[in-house]
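Why does residue order matter? Because the sequence determines the fold. Keep that principle in mind as you read this record.
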Amino acid sequence: MRLRGLYRALVLAGVTNLLHPSSGDAAAGDIYFSTGLRTTGQVAKIVRLDSSGAKNTFVSGGNPYGLAFDRAGNLFVAIPNGGNVVKYTPDGQPTTFANGLGRPGGLAMDSNDNLFVADLTANAIVKITPDGTKTTYASGLNKPSAVTFDKAGNLYCSEIASGQVVRISTSGDKTTIASGLSEPQALAFDQAGNLFVIEGAAPNVFKIAPDLTRTLFYTALARGLGLCFNLRGNLVVTDNAGGGLFVVDQQGTEISNDFDVQSPIHVAVEPPTSNSVNIATRIRVLKDDKALFAGFIVTGTEPKKVLIRGIGPSLSNFGLSGTLADPTLELHDQSGSLLAVNDDWKEANESEIAATGIPPTDNKEAAILTTLPPGSYTAIERGKGNTEGIALIEIYDLAADTHASLANISSRGFVDTGSNVMIGGFIVGGGNGSRILVRALGPSLGAVGVANALANPTLELRDGNGNLLRSNDNWKDQQRQEIEFVGIPPANDLESAIAATVPPGNYTAVLAGANGATGIGLLEIYNVK
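Structure:
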């Protein structure tokens, strides 16, 4: 049913004293913070703050401190007075992940889901693999408090006793990158590589640029302990002694605060765990270089089994006229090498394609069933004999449970008017939702030699029922900070972009020309992790 829904949308437009978590539905982008005790009768807990600003107790009891999520959405919690780390699955089931630590504090997860623990009493950083194996990653530190990683995989550690921030390279070399701080605590990186550090014995948050220039970023705290960036690119700051939770934009301006919190300690953002299980694009396919070009990326560590469909004649069943009568498909790798071709889908792998349950419904339509290693690929749909017509290209994930995913689709073609604009669709699979970035490009294509590029693209994002979720013309006019935080803003100010966190379901993105203009456009849908 979900596949038909997208098709229709495209056509039409542990620790035993910790109590069980609350039953509220968590979502990508929710903020979690641990709390301590300020007055008699209080109970330490972990609180979840959702996108509406509502706070719910996730877990009560124990002595929670450092927090970190893995890519699957499991929450890891350091318990200093127990010397252990507790793991909570997305459905809230706790297990003791590691014990025998000295006084675990700050936590950080690397790109392979190895957990790193700042052990205050051992003066060490402990690495714990997903299967629970512990090793000492770094020793000889001076009361390490918090840890984080940069994009290159270097580990950064704050030292309370020395007032320093130390970088530990992937080869184990230590470098002091900041000193003279007053009990430095949590650390966080933005997308530009700036490191933010909060002081526990002063009211400050500092920003350390990649060239190690240090500037005062924010000040208003009694005892700061926690930092993290939310999915919109704002810095979330906890004030333990002041009992406050603050949100600060990238210019250091406080945009919200909440003093109805109990001694907040560390803070973490719940990552998106849903993957795209189907991505597709519909457009009028023309001759030669105005065919439908769909690039997609397979990310992860395992091969991905996919079905690529080139649809044309069956679109007339949904009321469309002028459909492509006989589509053909080509699949190329990132070097341009031809991997597979198909004209009529029953000519190759008929039984295997039929067994997927989603073969094309017209014998003239094309399909390629293949297993691809991680990398970049391009599927090209043309009309046989250089014919033209409305067509749909689809890429289905047939192995959603593997350690690989479809990260994005980039479709290039001639954007016309009316029903012949470009429509991209995608399905967000099971999980807590997905963080997406949609880009509509035109002028920047001309800058790289594409003739007749669309001068001023516009963009709409709609749900599976056709409801408009967000629209954009020039990307800097709306959501500029969110789009820049993802790290891949459009190159031209006239191009369009939309950033959104969406729950599982069907979605479409519509690329058109402003004021009815036409030309070659590129529609990109990124599944941001």
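The longest strand covers residues 404-415.
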